[in-house]
Design goal:
Cytochrome Bc1 Complex, Chain D, domain 2; about 325 residues; Immunoglobulin-like; five-stranded mixed sheet; about 40% helix; elongated; 3 domains; binds dinuclear copper ion; alpha+beta
């Protein structure tokens, strides 16, 4: 009996060591590079959980595998084997040990959750998700951008809104993920710990353009951040302003190079005669573009679905719409 136990335990230790090594190396391969202080806590918990899973899996599967080979029925052996009832020590330990593991994990998770969600921060950024783009507003700096630029090492409070349906704000390298829910303000706290380029991904299926609902992220030094803020004041030239607005709001669904996306391309669109879904034809002029921004479902171009959300004057002012028209006029084939 003792001989069997020793052999089974050796098998279990070998299995656990192998799986532990796979978890250790697999983490580097399959999990995106870590780039935030908060994410460090999350990775530690995730690693610990995977190691525990590897250990428990090895214990169960090790005994089972050993029994299958060591106690298999041999030719000519017709006995059923001894029947065993109850083992108090074993039963108490397989109840207590998992209970302690689960309680320990919840205690650690609670500790890290409150540490990640603590309210202190150096910078506030308001994030708005809408089908199918992200807008970042820096109320203390008085700027708005389609690109998320943040200083490294500063704790940022993200105040998250949605203009239409449920989206989810997620930069995988930062680990923390938070839903954008219409009618609700949600928060995420992140301290970027690595400079570089990343992407905000929408992590909630939100419609036809969900996969394109990306925004560039740049983590830079404090000096570069301040220089970027200074550059962000809106340009005086309407074509420049229009270009910036189109890049922020439109390019997820409308290409500038003639390719077909969720919506028609902007290339060569201005001045063209365009057939609509109701069978009529319209000339794409200032009035049509303005109407299509304010009430996009009224006149839909043939071959496309009426999926574009309306942009009211709080999202794009009349001057901003005029700037978009000025830029679209320059997109000639
Ligand atoms: Cu927004 Cu998916």
């Amino acid at each position: 009996m003792k001989r069997h136990l020793v052999r089974a335990l050796v098998l279990i230790v070998v299995l656990a060591a192998g799986l532990g090594y796979l978890v250790y190396t697999g983490f580097e391969v399959f999990v995106p590079t870590l780039a935030s202080a908060e994410g460090e806590r999350i990775d530690q918990l995730l690693r610990l959980q995977f190691f525990l899973i590897a250990a428990i899996f090895s214990l169960v599967v090790g005994f089972a595998l050993y029994a299958v080979f060591a106690f298999r029925r041999r030719p000519g052996d017709e006995t059923a084997g001894p029947s065993i009832h109850g083992h108090s020590l074993l039963e108490i330990s397989w109840t207590l040990v998992p209970l302690l593991i689960v309680l320990g994990l919840s205690a650690m998770t609670t500790r890290d959750f409150f540490w990640i969600r603590r309210p202190d921060h150096d910078l506030l950024i308001r994030v708005t998700g809408q089908q199918f783009s992200w807008i970042f507003e820096y109320p203390e700096q008085g700027i708005k951008s389609g690109e998320l630029v943040v200083p490294e090492g500063k704790r940022i409070k993200f105040e998250i809104h949605s203009a239409d349906v449920v989206h989810s704000f997620w930069v995988p390298e930062w680990r923390v993920k938070e839903d954008a829910v219409p009618g609700l303000t949600t928060y995420a706290y992140i301290t970027p710990s690595r400079e570089g380029a990343f992407k905000v991904r929408c992590a909630e299926l939100c419609g036809a353009g969900h996969a394109n609902m990306l925004a560039p992220v740049r983590v830079v030094s404090q000096e570069e951040f301040e220089a970027w803020v200074a550059q962000q004041k809106p340009p005086a030239d309407p074509v420049e302003l229009g270009k910036r607005l189109v890049e922020q709001y439109c390019v997820a669904c409308h290409s500038l190079d003639g390719s077909k996306k969720v919506g028609p391309t902007f290339l060569g669109m201005f001045g063209r005669q365009t057939p609509l879904t109701d069978g009529t034809t319209v000339t794409v002029d200032e009035a049509y573009i303005q109407a299509s921004i304010r009430d996009p479902k009224a006149q839909v171009v043939e071959g496309f679905q009426p999926v574009m959300p309306a942009f009211g004057p709080d999202q794009l002012s009349d001057e901003e719409v005029a700037a978009i028209v000025a830029f679209l006029k320059t997109l000639k084939e």
